[in-house]
């Protein structure tokens, strides 16, 4: 199995503006940018790593794991708050 860093780029940064939603994951590709908030717990962390590895091996973004359903956020809405 290829190392994760060889398959996808992973980066950690602070949000460039105040955000009330914790644990935000941003997935960026050539065609889209998707934001997910309240990403927490071993299951979700394992799911995102497995997804990233599988997407890298497939050389395309696969569908996100079901554990991410309901976590999509729009960071440009003025009323983004904790759920």
Brief overview, please?
The protein has a domain at 20-73. It is 25% helix and 12% strand.
Structure overview:
The chain has 83 residues and is α+β, with helices and mostly antiparallel strands. The protein has a domain at 20-73. The chain has helices at 4-7, 42-58, and strands at 25-28, 33-36, 72-73. A 3-stranded antiparallel β-sheet has the order 1-2-3, with no helix packed on it. A hairpin with a 4-residue loop joins strand 1 and strand 2 (33-36). It is globular. The relative contact order is 0.25. The mean pLDDT is 79.
Features:
alpha+beta, single chain, 2 helices, three-stranded antiparallel beta sheet, globular, 3 strands, 83 residues
Mean pLDDT: 79
Total count of helical runs of at least 4 residues: 2
Shape by Cα distribution: globular
| Low-confidence residue ranges | none
Sheet with the most strands?
3 strands, antiparallel
Widest sheet: strand ordering: 1-2-3
Query: Roughly what fraction of the amino acids lie in strands?
Result: 5-15%
**In sequence order, what are the helices and strands, one letter per element?**
HEEHE
Percentage of residues in helical conformation: 25-40%
Topology:
Layout (H helix, E strand, L loop, with lengths): L3 H4 L17 E4 L4 E4 L5 H17 L13 E2 L10
Antiparallel strand pairs: 1-2, 2-3
């Amino acid at each position: 199995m290829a190392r994760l860093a060889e398959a996808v780029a992973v980066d950690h940064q602070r949000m460039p503006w105040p955000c009330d939603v914790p644990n935000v994951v941003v997935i960026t590709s050539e065609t889209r940018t998707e934001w997910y908030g309240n990403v927490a717990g071993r299951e979700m962390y394992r799911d995102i790593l497995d997804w990233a590895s599988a997407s890298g091996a497939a050389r395309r973004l696969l569908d996100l794991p079901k554990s991410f359903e309901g976590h999509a956020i729009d960071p440009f809405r003025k009323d983004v708050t904790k759920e």
